[in-house]
Amino acid sequence: MTRDDALATDNADLLSEYRDHFHIPDADVIYLDGNSLGRPTLEGVERIENTLHEEWGRGLVRSWRREWIGLPEQIGDLLAPIIGASPGEVLIADQTSVNLFKLASAALAATGRTDIVLDDSNFPSDLYVLDAVARAAGGHLRIASADRTAGPTVDDLDPLLDEHVGVVSLSHVGFKTGALADMHEITATAHNAGALALWDLSHSAGVVPVDLNAYNVDLAVGCTYKYLNGGPGAPAFLYVRWDLQEHLATPIPGWFGHADMFAFDPTYSPAPGIRRFAAGTPPILSLRGAQAGISLSAEAGIEAIRTKSVQLTEFLIARYDARLAGLGFALGSPRNPDRRGGHVSVHHPHAYPIAQALIDRNVIPDFRAPDTIRLGLAPLYTAFTEVWDAVEVFADVVESGAYRDYPATPEGVT
Amino acid sequence: MTRDDALATDNADLLSEYRDHFHIPDADVIYLDGNSLGRPTLEGVERIENTLHEEWGRGLVRSWRREWIGLPEQIGDLLAPIIGASPGEVLIADQTSVNLFKLASAALAATGRTDIVLDDSNFPSDLYVLDAVARAAGGHLRIASADRTAGPTVDDLDPLLDEHVGVVSLSHVGFKTGALADMHEITATAHNAGALALWDLSHSAGVVPVDLNAYNVDLAVGCTYKYLNGGPGAPAFLYVRWDLQEHLATPIPGWFGHADMFAFDPTYSPAPGIRRFAAGTPPILSLRGAQAGISLSAEAGIEAIRTKSVQLTEFLIARYDARLAGLGFALGSPRNPDRRGGHVSVHHPHAYPIAQALIDRNVIPDFRAPDTIRLGLAPLYTAFTEVWDAVEVFADVVESGAYRDYPATPEGVT
Known about the structure:
12 helices, alpha/beta, homodimer
């Protein structure tokens, strides 16, 4: 395999034109952290500037009724097909942690149960929030130990399930491992135990097809700033299966979730649909970025995105085997592409200084303490030649010992 | 009094230069709804564009450590002097409803009490959220009936206080009436009953000096998109008195509130200061707007802003008496400027069509069902001649009967 093979793959790539839809002022930077913060879309930049100058500047408060008020549901409907949901089941609102809090709290109240099952590869913020939710309900977390690389399975979770468990809440793709959980089997297992399944899609939305409706998933949350390219801290989303919506009460009933918010009714009446899970006024500028990013993913199509994503991670692992496996690295992600999301993790005892050396050489990965480097491959703008070149820089940094010029740990580094 | 008097006042206005700091593409529009959504600052437009193109576009994920991670506390410290707080007591986070939920829940848990006292002039979203918080604690709301124009007083609230009340939560300035509550007396009364005082500053922050520290206020929340000109749905703020911070636990412990968020510790340890009340990733683009708006208010100085604000509302009421009082209107705000915030409300049986007729004539007020028109006067960009001209248009719309060309109610109007 040569770099020309990578170039040939780029030339045959049906999604290659999508790179032109992004604002890329630094074409010499190989950006492998789109799973942490995606690049800006050109349409997002344009929409946000228009919102600044025209909608806010000229339209002023009138833009709420003209343009903004329905956006959280409209953008939710744009996102729905990307995650296998139906119109009216997805809302853009708040941040992932807040949405997780709202849905997990509502789910425990609706089931009359107190405990939550999850696994130790879940994102730490999810652990914190779910622990608080379970304790507030008089229960506690039950945490499965998942295999470090493979992610959680039914066998890990099943022994923890009983009649006190109201919610099973997992990450669809592990934030460190990139492992893709079996949403179908795990959701069915939760249902068999009388629990609701609540999935965090932050690392799968926009890169892995999600089949919420097909698997009868109850609840989901996720962010829009990774593969959906919504912008730093762009508002998150939440999904509630349509027939559950009227049975769940948000613990934070704000005016944006009221049936008639401009009536300024002193009594709360939830909106009939998914909007009942909204709380306060959404941040419109950040919302416009999410809208543009989600639109672009919808246009490209999640199946085409997944096809290229698998090609990219397979290609990366082939290059890893050829160039990095002998240099003290261990692969931290599943080799089976059916069990892998959009990023690949590698472990190395010197992961931190290696990551810093890469950044100084215009290859941007993501470091996760203590020893993990994540390589996020964003199908809408990552090229196969970039993967080739990045691995060469990676190997050079280790072989040459260049990483030894950097601090050994992030302590004291800001 | 003539229009020349208004012009002379504009010419003597020490804050008049601040209008040049705003993006005003429509100088013919008289904007009297800055208490709902303030105008964009030029610095905000510039900062947001720079964040789009440079920090996000070029800096990518690196901008979190370089630029963004400390913003919620840094901007909180910028806001602190405007509301009489100290550095380390204010955080920009989430939306007002979510912050109210967090602080009220934490306050009930800390006091071991179950009930919340408020009044019926409070913002409806606050009623909904506080009702949910009290019910979740096993208690209920106790709602005082405040006089429609004067706002809540100690006499309204005192009979409702006893050893079950953990929180007294009021709006500092009433959203309909513009009435300014006596924060000093009411906070002291809450403390005498062993309750914590939680103020919603949405309609006072940036227009009325707030003395949180001087009055020993425990907790406060508010938005940044009104007089602080942060932009539509810009993130809100929360204040927790420094010596209370370690005694309160947020019900939504997310990773942005963790002592060491990048350690990805599976166990939650709250950050030592105000950051412990953060939850998820903040929306950076919207946050940059808030930063610019707050900076501008801080530069102008809240005492100078208040001086002009009182001049503006006094001038408006004088013009109201001269031109509108005989046309079927009733004044809905206190006449005593010491008991009034930054906006003035008027009632009229035909308030809705009158507001629509005004908007068509480039005078933008705010309608609040069923019969209220709010006139928000933003000292940083509202001119006395604008107030004069707006009242003339107002009078003309009523005297000429032009308002009869508009729908009588908002029903069916979007």
